[in-house]
Specification:
The protein is of the alpha/beta class. The chain is about 35% helix and about 15% strand. The protein has a 7-stranded mixed beta sheet, with helices on both faces. Strand 14 (about 330-335), helix 13 (about 345-355) and strand 15 (about 360-365) form a beta-alpha-beta unit. The longest helix is centred in the C-terminal third of the chain and has 18 residues, at about 400-420. The radius of gyration is 28 Å and the shape is globular.
Length: about 600
């Protein structure tokens, strides 16, 4: 008997903890019948199909999500033709709500495991092993009369649903990562709780009635395993990690005291319920020890009320600013476009307020109308149209047209390229001064890039610098020299360029100073540093923004300041090289 659990991930760096949990929960005796297979949605369907065929399983279980459901549907149909005697099962959030409908659509399926699948899978596997379903098992004596599938809770079969199963005891679920070899160069996901206390209508977690926590002593043992093995990152998948103060403090205190100097921990939290004690502890973390993902979604009070999201935006903003001030924790803030009562102008206001909170990353997402969610039930009332196929993304609402949402797609792309990349941290704050707000900047930038046809996707990164320079010069043409220096500074902060960018200053009048530097520093400089002259204080965004009205081509006679970029020393949060003035030189140039 061989039961193959299949995961089709969105990217290679992702792993699927669900199939590892199912195998672990099968128990020592049954897990020997389980084999795992992980693929990605970027692989051809035929390639995945062939690999499953050559494994010759007696049963196959597909883990189904919005990112892989289209591909899984193709595999179901073709696999049944090639392996007609193989039982085909589904499980996961994409198939748990309307399992009966899916079974009618695909008669090739044996059944669907709905909701949490660990206990149900163990019993299904036990059923097959007792029934002697493995190749060559028919001649063997059956161990015992198998319980029928209809008696196993938590299934949907062609004859209907079996009784629901009680939620799993989180502390009884085995640890998934005793062997780390399958997770080399992949993200490690960890679950310390299930469920969410909030009832946001766009989220499937809202249908759960309770939050369950894993025993803290077990959690500490498992986190110690990650720390001892110096795993690069552990991503907690808890829906609202900080919903319990005691649970939060116990874990954060432990990783603070046990920090190995390498491992990073990612948490999804609600910032407005953070307590001062929690923030104080976060402020003591090593830079790079933790990163926080915070869902804001909108600052429109009517929108928050409609989606049943209980958020105090003022408290959230205050908490983010306190953490941001520490400079040691990476902060990721989320917005969702396409929510009820959020029109284009309202979304711009939400964007500007969240942007000004200063996150390291700002994710502009688009509403997914998930089957079984409150938003799915109310979509017609709100005039929401969405894609019929995964990812069920919003097309229009009663407040925002398809054209406006498409324009926001352009804004999202510019935020990703320019803000979230962290490559323009000095240019953008200055450029923002030329516009009435950050949203308008990215909106105009998206329009400019589209109109000019700049190839930013998949092209050399220098193209993004050149496109931003062209945009800045088009909208703020009295400060061209400033933008060239800002972009040069940002570029050398990130990497020691082998070839000099075309927009950088001419170094011919600075050659003697550079030679003096090399003679003075000698081998200590090496190839891991770069010396660059600047005529404006581009390394100080605050000063540049404060004196925006003064900086321009009309300012003459400034002496150059030499900045040394040291690539052996990088900031653990931004990854920028250390950059500092190195003192006066006798042959300073002037504009």
């Amino acid at each position: 008997m061989k039961f193959l659990l299949v995961a089709v991930n969105a990217k290679f760096i992702h792993s699927n903890p669900a199939i590892y949990s199912l195998r672990a929960c099968a128990g020592e005796e049954l897990c020997r019948f389980v084999e795992l297979a992980e693929y990605t949605i970027n692989q051809p369907m035929e390639e995945i199909l062939a690999d499953i065929y050559y494994r010759k399983p007696d049963g196959v279980g597909f883990s189904c999500y919005i990112w892989n459901w289209r591909l899984v549907q193709e595999l179901i149909v073709e696999l049944a033709k090639l392996l007609p005697d193989t039982a085909i099962w589904l499980g996961g959030p994409e198939v748990s709500y309307d399992a009966d409908v899916i079974l009618k659509k695909y008669p090739q399926l044996t059944g669907i495991m709905t909701g949490e699948g660990e206990a149900a899978f163990r019993e299904v596997l036990e059923y097959y092993t007792k029934a002697g379903c493995g190749r060559g098992d028919s001649a063997k004596k059956k161990q015992a009369e198998p319980v029928s599938l209809e008696h196993i809770k938590g299934l949907c079969l062609p004859g209907g649903y079996t009784p629901c199963r009680a939620p799993a005891d989180m502390s009884a679920i085995p640890f998934l990562y005793e062997d780390l070899s399958p997770f080399a160069n992949k993200i490690i996901y960890y679950e310390s709780s299930r469920g969410c206390p909030f009832r946001c209508t766009y989220c499937l977690s809202s249908v759960e009635n309770q939050v369950r926590f894993r025993n803290i002593s077990i959690i500490k043992e498992e986190l110690r395993f990650f720390l001892d093995h110096k795993v690069n990152q552990v991503k907690f998948v808890d829906r609202t990690f900080n919903c319990s103060h005691e649970h939060t403090m116990a874990i954060w205190q432990y990783i603070f005291e046990s920090d190995n100097g390498v491992t990073n921990f990612h948490f999804e939290i609600s910032a407005d319920i953070l307590r001062d004690e929690e923030i104080a502890l976060l402020r003591r973390f090593r830079p790079g020890l933790a990163q926080l993902e915070i869902g804001v979604q909108s600052v429109n009070p009517d929108t928050l009320k409609a989606i049943r999201r209980v958020t105090d935006i003022d408290r959230l903003e205050a908490a983010v600013r306190k953490i941001r001030k520490g400079g040691n924790v990476h902060i990721h803030l989320d917005l969702i476009a396409g929510l009820p009562y959020e029109d284009y102008v309202s979304f711009g206001r939400s964007f500007d307020r969240v942007y000004r909170m200063g996150p390291h990353q700002l994710q502009l997402g688009f509403l997914k109308v998930l089957k079984g969610s409150g938003m799915w039930e109310a979509a017609e009332d709100y005039g929401i149209g969405y894609m019929e196929q995964p990812p069920y993304e919003v097309l229009y609402t009663g407040w925002m047209s398809y054209g406006e949402l498409r324009r926001l797609k352009g804004v999202e792309e510019m935020v990703e390229f320019y803000y979230n990349s962290g490559q323009f941290t000095h240019t953008l704050p200055f450029l923002e001064r030329a516009f009435e707000g950050p949203f308008v900047l990215y909106e105009r930038l998206a329009d400019f890039v589209r109109a000019k046809g700049y190839p930013l996707t998949g092209s050399a990164r220098i193209r993004r610098y050149e496109a931003l320079l062209a945009f800045a010069e088009a909208y703020d043409n009295t400060r061209q020299a400033i933008y060239r220096e800002l972009l040069t500074y940002d570029l050398y902060l990130r990497e020691n360029m082998k070839s000099r960018p075309a927009f950088a200053a001419d170094l011919s009048c600075h050659q003697e100073a550079i030679r003096n530097f090399r003679r003075t520093w000698g081998e200590k400089a090496g190839k891991m540093v770069h010396l660059e002259p600047f005529y404006y204080p581009v390394w100080d965004p605050g000063q540049m923004a404060k004196n925006y009205a003064l900086w321009g081509t009309q300012v003459h006679g400034r002496e150059a300041e030499y900045i040394l970029f040291d690539y052996q020393k990088r900031d653990p949060i931004s990854h920028d090289a250390a950059a500092a003035p190195i003192g006066a030189w006798s042959d300073r140039g002037t504009v």
